[in-house]
Specification:
Layout lengths: L17 H20 L23 E5 L5 E3 L2 E3 L4 H9 L7 E5 L5 H14 L4 E4 L14
Parallel strand pairs: 1-4, 4-5
Antiparallel strand pairs: 1-2, 2-3
């Protein structure tokens, strides 16, 4: 028989994970509610850029999209189908040359994307989008 005051209780070495599971479930619910709110479906009117102008190369290769959708390589008009050949001639077959793409404010986003897709498919991956400085919003876009 055991002596009085001698407890014969076994020690438990298990961690109670119930509070941990409760916290994880609360975090899961918070993320399930917050994830759909993080998507952006609002229309955006992008402002003029206030980024510092980059240095201009000595002989830039200009590609211009006019408000009527017409394309110019330098000062020469070109069609969308003839654009890769015109750029190859202007750059000396150098697809690593940076193309400075200027588009009129009236050009649709779809037209701009279509031109950029043609450039990418033809191998020109270095495309710089040209804009005007934010403080000069009344001046037309033209090469300096």
């Amino acid at each position: 028989m055991a002596a009085p005051g001698d407890d014969d209780l076994a020690e438990l070495h298990e961690i109670n994970v119930t509070p941990f599971i409760d916290v994880i479930l609360v975090l899961l619910i918070i993320f399930m509610i917050a994830a759909p709110l993080a998507t952006v479906d609002a229309p955006v009117d992008l402002p003029a850029s206030n980024a510092l102008p980059a240095e201009r190369p000595d002989d830039p290769l200009w590609l211009t999209i006019r408000d009527d959708g017409g394309l110019l390589v330098g000062d020469d008009p070109v069609t969308l189908d003839a654009l890769p050949a015109a750029l190859a001639g202007a750059s000396g077959e150098n697809t690593d040359a940076r193309i400075f793409l200027r588009a009129d404010a009236a050009v649709s986003y779809g037209t701009l994307t279509e031109v950029m897709n043609v450039l990418r498919a033809a191998g020109w991956l270095k495309i710089a989008l040209v804009g005007r400085e934010a403080r000069d919003t009344a001046a037309p876009l033209s090469p300096p």
